[in-house]
Fold each of these.
Amino acid sequence: MISQKVLFSPIKNKRTFEEISVKIKTLIFKGILRPGDKLPSETELARQFKVGRQTVREALRLLEISGLITIQRGSSGGPLIENTILNTLSNLFLDAFQMRTITTEEIAVARLEIEKAMLNHIVKNADQSDIRSLRENILQAKKNAAANINPYLDNIQFHKLLAKASKNQIFIIVVESMMAIIGDFLSRLKPKFEHSRKVISEHEGILNEIIKKNTRKATRLLEEHIVNVRENMLDPSRTH
Amino acid sequence: MISQKVLFSPIKNKRTFEEISVKIKTLIFKGILRPGDKLPSETELARQFKVGRQTVREALRLLEISGLITIQRGSSGGPLIENTILNTLSNLFLDAFQMRTITTEEIAVARLEIEKAMLNHIVKNADQSDIRSLRENILQAKKNAAANINPYLDNIQFHKLLAKASKNQIFIIVVESMMAIIGDFLSRLKPKFEHSRKVISEHEGILNEIIKKNTRKATRLLEEHIVNVRENMLDPSRTH
DNA sequence: TCACATTTGTCCGTATGTATC
DNA sequence: AGATACATACGGACAAATGTG
């Protein structure tokens, strides 16, 4: 007798855990399962799909790594629908960087172009909340620099906030990912407070032009700024 | 008495399979394991790490989904170091789209800006091989359209080839990812051969300006082209 | 073509860790 | 503090896939 399985999966010999993962994914994409919903426990899923627990585990692992669910341990725990794709994407970009698939030079070029292209949309779409966050970011960076705390994380945050103000998820994802790489890189550099102060004041200048809705001047300042940062990154004073 | 565990694992309580995954990842990032190298079999890895085979499997699953290894079944199979991050990233963007994290409107805006920004670099960096691929792509698209085969895959490929010609991995990754979403979207549209022919002729015009190194005109044509495509995508004649 | 060895895929039973109530 | 419910992890077993002689 011909196995039914062959009839139902005509081309590819997908692994069982992949099929289960796809089924759950589809439910999520169709909106039947929504973020915040809890999935049944591993044992229960295994019972319902009529497969072993190990198979369910690998399916859940796949969904977890893809950023669609998180898994809580302990009583009343279990798989939870939660969208963490943004994080997952940043981590993957970081992997790509460490695999030498991406170089710092490529990031320098790409971020210059992409952040410049973003500016139009930032000037158009930024609301009061965005401006407030950007202002607070600069204050925080200044405070840290004054206290001899390396403000590079604040300075990276500034660019993430810019992307957020564009209200475009693609820009947000790409900038977050590039900044994850730059942050990783800068974390290995000796802090240079002189340079940091310059960076902060450049950020301030850019923000002021955005508030004035002067896209042209904001673009010029951003361009100068990113070129400066790039030169600083090329300076080979790595700590390790 | 204060638990030693807290002292020695300060932040995260990582799961065993995650630790194993990180160890293997580190070997790859350090270049000790290179693409093409084979990892020991699951049983062998379990023996070396002194853990169960299931734990190793979940660690390998993690690496597989992260795009660092592939896994072959059968004799002389096993885990193989292979960089498939580009694919993985595209798939994640597709997930983000289906999770409604990204909308078609956002893609339309972002691709217009990013592809325009790419043009300078394409004109500067494209070599003969790139130009040849782009020419062949247009020929192929024409051939398919003439044979009443929907050439949307060729037309998507055109933009991927443009990104490739920029010689910047970030552009390549971002464009490939956006095109994965657009391709998924178009695959559900009824073929419109009239529109396809227009698309192909617009591609041809853009390519000619790139060859002539006329960035300005290429930019104008690209802008018009993407606006046209966007309008067509907004047209709600979905097949399903 | 066939048999064989190797390796992944899947399942079961059991034990332990962990978070909640 | 104890009971409960869940994920995590281990070991053993067999099935399925795949390359080799």
Amino acid sequence: MTLVQLRYLIAVVDANLNITAAAARLNATQPGISKQLKLLEDELGFQVFVRKGKSLERTTPAGVEVIDRARSVLVETDNIRSLAADFQQQSDGELHIIATQTQARLFLPRVLGVLKAQYPALGIRQSYFSENPAAATSESESVDLSVVSASEHESVGSPAIPLYRWRRSLLVPAGHPLTRLGRAITLADIAEHPLVSYPSMARAGSSVSRAFTLSSLTPRFVGTAQDPELIKSYVRSGLGVGLIAEMAVSASDGADLVAIDIGDLLPTCTAWAVLRRDTVARRYTLDLLRLLAPRYSLQDISRLLRDGRPLPDRPAPWWSDVQAHEPVVPLHPTPAPSNVTAFPAAHVRRGGC
Amino acid sequence: MTLVQLRYLIAVVDANLNITAAAARLNATQPGISKQLKLLEDELGFQVFVRKGKSLERTTPAGVEVIDRARSVLVETDNIRSLAADFQQQSDGELHIIATQTQARLFLPRVLGVLKAQYPALGIRQSYFSENPAAATSESESVDLSVVSASEHESVGSPAIPLYRWRRSLLVPAGHPLTRLGRAITLADIAEHPLVSYPSMARAGSSVSRAFTLSSLTPRFVGTAQDPELIKSYVRSGLGVGLIAEMAVSASDGADLVAIDIGDLLPTCTAWAVLRRDTVARRYTLDLLRLLAPRYSLQDISRLLRDGRPLPDRPAPWWSDVQAHEPVVPLHPTPAPSNVTAFPAAHVRRGGC
DNA sequence: CGCGTTTACGTCGTTCGTAACGATA
DNA sequence: TATCGTTACGAACGACGTAAACGCG
């Protein structure tokens, strides 16, 4: 058993059992991977893959067990590498953030600029959550940080940091009947109109759906989109009224759209930064978290990630407050990590394996 | 980074930073380990060990982090190997059990014989808990199963299976004043005499100590020993009265020792089988657990180990009941593991790495 | 016939063991 | 001087890449 073999194994699994594709992604040759897989199976004494003819058809039950453990091995070796990179004060690397389109476009850019100024060599990879929850597991493999919104924090065991709280806004075309209501709006008023919103809100069992059903109302969702701009287009075209995050409402939306304050008709949301458990965060990840949630100290965050100790109880600010202030916390020059006798950089061998 | 490097690293750490000793234990050469350690440090970019002259003096803070992760990597690779061995229906291996002397001599032999009959090729390694708690972490590295006694289960996060309940017995020399008490014995009676017992009971804060202090009594422990036979010798020699596990009291103790039933003066104990978290148990380990606690099914135990799901709530039997019956549950012929397409044994390569 | 896997084979890099050296108590 | 770690070097193993063969759709 070799780390290389385990990595090949995982790469092949993640490439949908296509060895050639895995080889391309790994900068390896296809016969090499094929051979190493066979060696691994020889050593284990059973097949990890069911072969149909010559191609890999599926994994065996025993193989799944092995794959799970191999994943965990690779996570830990990546952790070791992260530790090493940080202790060396290396400022390069790649930060993979996955977020909703709203968060990615309206919230993250504020702080990513500051982060990038501190770490010029840092590569930032952004991706959106895919609509299909089934794909969530495989795509979240190499994600350093995900930014999600939830009405309350469903504890999935992953460490999460609350970032800010936000409300929904009701977006209607100018001149829409709801703009001439003459009284405070109610859920019943909203339910009378076809709705356009995020898929997560339209899902049965979501906090929005529950709020309606608690009032014995059944909202009619006529369209969903991840992209708030797309929702706006739908609203403009008269498809329905939009229910979107307040962050997505801006003055530049023009006079043809009107945002209606719905107060506390729907539960407020909290945006969370979720990290993977059992993974070591690079220094820039910690710095990003400090930018995102400056009310927590580096110690608070480190303790959460390392020991799972909960964060001190501080209410997350409202979006309006977040938006009002530029990120005021400049990044301190990164403090030297605990006393390390590092090698001079020239000796450092950027390791293969 | 290589699995071999990580294993060398851990071996050196566990050999108290003595490379030569680690080499002997690993059937490797000392220069080889030395070189691989250096390569690892080169790749990491910092020193894992502080060297004093040429010998390894201590680990660096960064090194400790790496060592922790490396441990976890090795645990997972061992898990993979265990999976493989089980899926191959291999019945060899080594079962490392650590237990108190009382458990090891008076409880475990009952079932180990049955287990050994089922797995003739199985090597069983017994060791005792050392008196020094500081050594507990390093010695418990490769332990598959530990059998401990505790008044209540302190949840350390490790999966634990309750085995049986037992009481303490008071052991006095024949003709001792306590045998002529003429009334029910009390804690105050006991506290009047010098006590000989296990170190765990004599420790401040133990359940025994607490029971005495709750009655405003301070027991005088004049001697402690792990070995119940040693305690008996002390009692025979008149050093004091013995407070030992009922399992250790037997008819063969002779007429010079008298066991006094102390009823519920002291809290009862429960013997637990504790397994390491995140480690895959071999089939023979599961079978041993079924022998030790036949009231739980294989499914119950598997669920506990795999998902941490708690066991069904069944009271553990008293020692007297355990002792009364021979282990009645014969081991079923091990059921075939989930559908695995195994290689013929001839193809199996007993892996190096 | 294209796609993908396996097998074969030559080359290269790496590891391992022996031996010698250096440093420390 | 004994013990322990490092360096040096030769031999052998193992991995990788190219090329070709095989199966399948």
